[in-house]
Write a structure and sequence with these properties.
The complex is a heterodimer of chains A (about 800) and B (about 325). By secondary structure, chain A is of the alpha/beta class. Chain B folds into 2 domains: about 30-145, PurM-like, N-terminal domain (60s Ribosomal Protein L30, Chain: A); about 155-320, Phosphoribosyl-aminoimidazole Synthetase, Chain A, domain 2 (Alpha-Beta Complex), CATH 3.90.650. Helix content of chain B is about 30%, strand content about 25%. The chains are: A alpha/beta (about 800), B alpha+beta (about 325). Chains A and B meet through helix 11, helix 12, strand 23, helix 14 and helix 17 of A and helix 7 and strand 14 of B. Bound molecules: fe (iii) ion, magnesium ion and zinc ion (ZN) (2 copies). The site of one zinc ion (ZN) has 8 residues of chain A, from helix 4.
């Protein structure tokens, strides 16, 4: 952060010697800011002090007028790499004439006004630490907990603000003399590095193996032995639970088919792809062809999982069960010293499956006892340590589309960094939606987002939600005076909000309005002009009680108007329609007037009794709700083309359909105009309706002619891109709007996100796409806050 | 409207409309919400309850509106531990109702009352204009006597209690639905309607500390457990795998996309029993013909007050909601 930072200054009488107090707001704790201030002040021969308080960092400097001025300049211009300065307030105060510059004790915790101290996210091991880790002469050679002010755990170990060692889970580790000296030395890279440790005083790594796969004794406490034993377990085909920054991972050799299948079976993971950790970018490049942005994303300090297109000639060859049916591979690089040491012990070029230590849908296991209980039957051994994880934080996931990041899960490495709000908001808690839940605490211009919490179907997630929300309140010192939730009457997040309201108002925001507001907010739109919001997802509760999900909204933060939507088809039997896409396919065929003949894959996939009952349900509406969902249309076509009839997780059929289309790289261009949605407007003033029946009929016809599924799938993608452009053009014509916002889980589909983005730009639109929060329901909380900010006054 | 579904919406009506309107002179809301009210009268404890029956069709596999009208009210009395004593019955008939059909209903009602050992002591009949009703509606009101020492109330459920269900769930709702809709499944499902006071008496004789009993009628097990969790401010953890359900019922639910936990039962009860007495009570249930399939399905806990969670076959723990009346997918 440089010159653009606003500095507020109050004039003071001119003197030769001056003392000035500067209060720095932003991400300035836990990033080496005080050492930097100390070094800068000392360099300029200034006296005074610096300390953390709950509102940020406060500095007083005293000395020659020019030196004080220069200090103010360097404070923002030369700030440490991880610091993000939002604002500096400067006031002249009376000189006191002390001799030196010191780092003072932090001021006491509870702020008197809403705090804006940003707590740093967890940061991957830095290059300096890595060098020391590998240097036999260094006293931290091979130390699994090496950190400095530029790297290491933060968010996950901080129990309170201000950020100081006693307010972290390192509080129980007394520094040795050598560490204490480094900690106190302003010239040292570990000056006031709160998680500082060394082999003499730091946490201990241990290997615990109840399994016969390991020949050594049951408990090995020595550091080298723990790593060696863990590596041996992996090389023998075992499943290892590894304690990382935000929780436990389950690891196994990604090249060992038996081990991967065992892990998959134990985790009851269905076909959901596993992420793979590789030692470095070179190793990553052997598994996937990376472009510059993907390489940069992989090696960023946040170290997310990056979904990349896998190489056909990938080396070494990964077990098929790592990511079945998937065109992509989720790669990540090591981000803790333990990861680096473990990969080295296993053998540098061995990629490891690294998947969250949990059962599908549960939050990641972070507490040691909890991990032991929940992973007991999943792992053959544990590589763990005694530095507690205060708050669980799952890995972040993103992909790169057209050179821009597209977050799929914003969690470790990002949480709790605030996202700037376009409008100020009174302290408000947004509880998000029910899948991929993230909650957000809004105050002023900041939205503090939690990490990924999980799916609210799960009772453990419900508890994790409460914990995450309390942690946010503690870090920010903000007690929300209002809550905002989705309008769905059955959402657990909404029930949670009502149960915990304690007399505070609970407002609701329509699901797709929140999606559109979310993408507007992350692009900083002030909301003075509406956008054309294209919200395509699986399910959201509509204002008419129907299940929406193929929506074009003319929206600003204050409200929206439904401009167009997919034609409604019956969704038979609630969640069953989601778990069994063939039901959705039969519903679409029925709506399109296509007979259920045995030659169509979903007809064959549906048992006859169920088919009879389903026909009755569709005819009478029994257990059916109308849906305009684009996600369910993709599910239906996936089954229609015989790609997937049953889903282990939400959107699996749609994801496989995308992979199927990508199997025919030329298909997208060749089949672009093959299918078209028919657009109509029942009465003037009512929303336009895009009817999928024309597409369904053409797909069924092509299927019978023997057109390959890959080509037909490419054709559907092309038709949806064309539909987006067509509806955007009509909205431009009707309302003169030129900005289109693409949002909703369907835009995780790279063919659609890229295709629609490019086609809209070619047609002269400004396109807003998610790049800071996910297009899926993980982005809903931000949108809820933006709407709350704009409408609170009303 | 969904207000009759026995789920969130009917609870809302009771709490926000009826209870405030029915406050007594000293401003108190009516007695504790339970299946039946227990009142002191001349030194005896009298259980008092009423229920109306609107089921369609009037006859279905395993029973009829007449059976429900008796068994439903008898069971509401049984759930507070009362010995059913007598019933009143009121009919609301639509002009033009087939008399032969009415006779069949009346016969069924009489037969059910004799089988349950309760007397029909008073009644009423009203006829509404054609188009203002739907054939036959029945109301029954019941009185029973609560034996000394018996105190079954949802509010007594406490952490540590074992949750027991007396038999296979979901049969009644599926039988009525498939009959009404003309759906044919591979195996026909019959309603489980039956009086449960015999079973309750047998459980009482076992001598254990039974804290609460409920019959999971409309809204099914899901609604009942949620009500107990709310009223007693406790969590309820159940094991999905241990909840008895007949194969054909499970199949039908799966085909229609229905949640078996949210489906009405007419011959099953849920008991919250002190942990140390659970085995004794279970043995007594197994020895009774109406409790042969009884099973412990979970525990009352102090965590997550108000929340019902089910440990799934997959090892997860899913939250069981109060049914909202309509099946709306939450999956996005
Ligand atoms: Fe959504
Ligand atoms: Mg009743
Ligand atoms: Zn470092
Ligand atoms: Zn040390």
């Amino acid at each position: 952060m440089g010159a653009g930072v606003p500095v507020r200054s109050r004039a003071a009488p001119q003197e030769s010697r001056r003392r000035r107090r500067l209060t720095v707001h932003g991400l300035v704790q836990g990033v080496g800011f005080r050492p930097f201030v100390h070094a800068t002040a000392t360099d300029l021969a200034l006296s005074g002090w610096v300390c953390n308080d709950a509102g940020g960092v406060v500095v007083e400097v005293e000395g020659a007028v020019r030196a004080v001025e220069e200090f103010g300049r360097r404070l923002t211009a030369d700030a440490p790499p991880l610091a993000v300065i939002d604002q500096v307030e400067a006031t002249d105060v009376a000189p006191r004439g002390e001799a030196a510059f010191t780092i003072a004790r932090s001021r006491c915790a509870r702020p008197t006004r809403p705090a804006r101290t940003a707590v740093s996210p967890d940061v991957a091991t830095c290059a300096d630490c890595l060098r020391e880790l590998g240097d036999p002469a260094d006293r931290r050679h091979g130390h699994p907990f090496i950190t400095c002010t530029n790297c290491g755990p933060r968010f996950t170990i901080i129990t309170d603000v201000p950020y100081d060692r006693p307010a972290t889970t390192m509080a129980g580790f007394a520094m040795c003399v050598a560490c204490a000296r480094e900690y106190a030395d302003p010239r040292d890279r570990r000056f006031h590095a709160q998680p500082i440790a060394c082999p003499d005083c730091g946490p201990r790594l241990e290997f615990v193996a109840p399994s016969r796969l390991v020949h050594a004794a049951d408990e090995v406490r020595e550091r080298e032995d723990a790593l060696a034993a863990a590596a041996r377990l992996l090389l023998n085909g075992g499943v290892l639970a590894v304690k990382g920054l935000g929780g436990y991972h389950l690891a196994c050799l990604a090249t060992d088919a038996a081990a991967v299948s065992t892990l998959r079976r134990r985790k009851r993971r269905g076909d959901k792809p596993f992420a793979v950790m590789v030692a470095d970018l070179t190793a990553a490049g052997r598994l996937a062809s990376l472009d510059r942005e993907e390489a940069a994303a992989l090696s960023a300090p946040s170290r997310p999982i990056v979904l990349v297109e896998r190489r056909r000639d990938c080396r070494p060859v990964l077990a098929a069960a790592v990511a079945p049916h998937s065109a992509d591979l989720g790669l990540l690089l090591p981000y803790t010293p333990v990861h680096h040491l473990l990969l080295a012990a296993v053998g540098g070029d061995q990629p490891l499956v690294m998947t969250s230590g949990n059962l599908g849908g549960e939050p990641i296991a972070a507490d040691d006892a909890d991990a032991r209980a929940r992973l007991g039957t999943l792992a053959d051994g544990w590589l763990r340590h005694d530095r507690p994880i205060h708050i669980p934080c799952d890995d972040s996931v993103l992909r790169v589309v057209d050179g821009e990041p597209l977050p799929l899960r914003r969690s470790r490495g990002f949480a709790p960094l605030p996202v700037a709000l376009p409008l100020p908001v009174a302290p408000t808690l947004a509880v998000g939606a029910d899948l991929k839940t993230v909650c957000a605490l809004g105050v002023g211009r900041s939205a503090w987002l939690s990490g990924h919490i999980g799916d609210m179907d799960d009772a453990a997630t419900l508890r994790a939600f409460t914990t995450a929300q309390r942690h946010l309140e503690r870090l920010t010192g903000v007690r929300p005076g209002a809550l905002v939730a989705d309008r769905h009457p059955g959402y657990r997040s909404g029930q949670w909000a009502r149960r915990h309201a304690e007399g505070r108002p609970v407002r609701t925001v329509q699901h797709h309005h929140a999606h559109v507001a979310s993408v507007m907010a992350e692009h900083g739109l002030d909301g003075s002009e509406p956008v054309v919001g294209i919200a395509f997802d699986g399910t959201g509760y509509g204002t008419d009680g129907a299940v929406w999900g193929g929506e074009v909204l003319i929206a600003d933060y204050r409200g929206f108007r439904r401009f167009a939507h997919l034609g409604a088809v019956p969704l038979p039997g609630g969640d069953a329609a989601v778990r069994r896409p063939y039901r959705m396919a039969l519903a679409h065929l029925w709506s399109a007037g296509v007979g259920w003949d045995q030659d169509l894959p979903p007809v064959a996939a549906c048992p006859p009794t169920e088919r009879r009952a389903l026909a009755h349900q569709l005819a009478t509406g029994l257990g059916c709700v109308p849906t305009t969902s684009m996600g369910r249309l993709f599910d239906a076509v996936s089954s229609l083309l015989g790609v997937r009839h049953q889903a282990d997780f939400e959107a699996q059929a749609a994801i496989d359909l995308e992979a199927c289309a990508r199997g025919d790289p030329d298909g997208l261009a060749a089949w672009r105009g093959r299918y078209t949605f028919a657009i109509s407007q029942p009465t003037s003033g009512s929303p336009l309706i895009a009817d999928a029946a024309t597409v369904i009929r053409a797909l069924a016809r092509d299927l019978r002619r023997g057109v390959p599924a890959a080509a037909a799938s490419a054709g559907l993608h092309g038709a949806v891109v064309a539909l987006v452009v067509d509806l955007a053009c009509r909205a431009r014509q009707a309302h003169g709007l030129r900005t289109v916002a693409l949002t909703g889980g369907v835009f995780q589909n790279v063919l659609l996100a890229r295709g629609a983005g490019r086609a809209l730009r070619t047609a002269g639109f400004t396109v807003l796409r998610h790049c800071r929060v996910p297009p899926n329901d993980g982005g809903i909380a931000l949108g809820q806050l933006a709407v709350a900010a704009a409408t609170a006054a009303e | 409207m969904g207000h009759g579904g026995g789920g969130a919406m009917s609870a809302e009506l009771v709490e926000q409309l009826f209870l405030p309107a029915f406050r007594s002179r000293d401003g108190e809301t009516p007695v504790e919400l339970a299946d039946a009210a227990v009142l002191e009268l001349c030194g005896s404890r009298i259980a008092f309850t009423t229920d109306s029956f609107v089921v369609r069709p009037l006859f279905f596999p395993g029973g009829s509106i007449g059976d429900l009208a008796v068994n439903g009210t008898v069971n509401d009395l049984a759930m507070v531990g009362a010995r059913p004593w007598c019933l009143s019955t009121a009919f609301i008939l639509e002009e033009g109702t087939d008399l032969a059909e009415l006779r069949r209903v009346a016969d069924a009602l009489g037969t059910a009352a004799r089988a349950a050992g309760v007397r029909l002591v008073t009644g009423d009949t009203k006829v509404v204009d054609a188009g203002h009703g739907d054939g036959i509606y029945v109301n029954t009101t019941g009185l029973g006597l609560v034996p000394d020492g018996v105190d079954y109330r949802p509010g007594r459920a406490g952490p540590g209690d074992v949750v027991i269900v007396s038999g296979e769930i979901g049969a009644h709702g599926v039988a009525v639905l498939s009959c009404r809709e003309g759906l044919e499944f591979d195996t026909a499902v019959r309603s489980d309607t039956r009086p449960l006071h015999g079973l309750v008496a047998a459980m009482g004789r076992a001598g254990g500390d039974i804290h609460a009993l409920r019959d999971p009628t409309r809204g099914g097990l899901a609604a009942t457990l949620n009500e107990i969790a709310r009223d007693a401010s406790v969590g309820v953890d159940v094991r999905e795998r241990d909840i008895p359900i007949a194969g054909p019922v499970a199949d039908a639910c799966s085909i229609l996309g229905l949640d078996p936990f949210a489906i009405a039962n007419e011959g099953v009860l849920v008991a919250m029993v002190a942990a140390e007495d659970a085995d004794r009570v279970l043995d007594a249930m197994h020895a009774h013909p109406d409790g042969r399939d009884a099973a412990p399905i979970g525990e009352v806990t102090a965590n997550n007050p108000g929340v019902v969670a089910a440990r799934t076959g997959l090892g997860g723990e899913r939250v069981i909601d109060l049914p909202t009346g309509t099946e709306l997918p939450r999956i996005c």
